[in-house]
Specification:
Tetracycline Repressor, domain 2; about 90 residues; elongated; single chain; about 0% strand; mainly alpha
Length: about 90
Amino acid sequence: MIMPKKDPRILRTRQLIVDSFLSLASEKDFNHITVRDITEKATINRATFYAHFDDKFDLLHSTITNTFTDKLKKRLNDHDGFNEKVIANIFV
């Protein structure tokens, strides 16, 4: 199955949200970070945030999952028998 390419603007906005969240997470506890904090730091409106994520917990989950997956792919990339399908099967 061929995946459609994502709009670069969507990818940039999503990355801006993640970067803002990570920056805030280095400044204060997760429980004290609000969607308002994230949107102000990212200079976007709340509707844009909610177009990408359900809430800050969804953002946290996505950030952790993507970071873990990226690091795992990099570490396993040098091994011949490992590819995305194998990695997906490991987690299933």
